[in-house]
From TrEMBL:
<keyword id="KW-0460">Magnesium</keyword>
<keyword id="KW-0378">Hydrolase</keyword>
<dbReference type="Pfam" id="PF04029">
    <property type="entry name" value="2-ph_phosp"/>
</dbReference>
<dbReference type="GO" id="GO:0000287">
    <property type="term" value="F:magnesium ion binding"/>
</dbReference>
<dbReference type="GO" id="GO:0050532">
    <property type="term" value="F:2-phosphosulfolactate phosphatase activity"/>
</dbReference>
<dbReference type="InterPro" id="IPR005238">
    <property type="entry name" value="ComB-like"/>
</dbReference>
<protein>
    <recommendedName>
        <fullName>Probable 2-phosphosulfolactate phosphatase</fullName>
        <ecNumber>3.1.3.71</ecNumber>
    </recommendedName>
</protein>
<comment type="similarity">
    <text>Belongs to the ComB family.</text>
</comment>
<dbReference type="GO" id="GO:0050545">
    <property type="term" value="F:sulfopyruvate decarboxylase activity"/>
</dbReference>
<dbReference type="InterPro" id="IPR036702">
    <property type="entry name" value="ComB-like_sf"/>
</dbReference>
Amino acid sequence: IFTADDIKREKIEGRNIVVIDVLRATSVMVTAMARGVEEIHVFKDVEEVFEAGRGRVDAILCGERRGLKVEGFHYGNSPLEYGEEIEGKRMYMTTSNGTKALVGSNSGRRVFTGSFLNLDAVVKRVLEEDEDLVVVCAGTDGEFSLDDALCAGMIAEGIAQKKREAEFTDSALAMRDIALGCREPKDRLAGSRHYSYLESIDFHEDLDYCLSLNLYDIVPEYREGVVRAGRLQ
Ligand code: MLT
């Protein structure tokens, strides 16, 4: 398990990866897929989004800086903004940490996106693959973020329960400890940094939503710049 800024090419090349940005990029992605979005093109920079979406009638430009919608974009980074009207559309997305973590994971073998909203589905999907797994926690501005770590720990615990012989690195064991006995992610995260920031800019409902477990059985998969929906067999 790494945070986004610690990604080293040799550690991830050819490996299966789950990228997590619980608050809120990967929660937005799985929600948008559930609403019928077909593709999410992800970018590091705002300018790249304007450039890629230019002239496309089905394009939704979306994402945030400092948690707020970018001027000129159609949508921000609140999963609750994304309703049925986005079905069949293409999203062009940049966020402060989540899309950077995905772009940085480009050299992985298969790259999935994880969140509390699709936790069990992610565990099942990676067990189907039966390969070594690297979990990349997007974090916040280069810092460790408890929300991503808790989700990573719950994924590790899910794997441990279903596959007794699985082996874990020390960071994975540490995150499993964080997750130990946690039934309500919200109880663990109150007071953590990005959680508190989102509260301060009035995204209380996003917190309730993003910290809900297993609303979807969709496992979005990133490949060559684009996230698409994958469902369990
Ligand atoms: C990010 O990618 O940094 C986050 O999704 C920020 C946010 O909560 O909007």
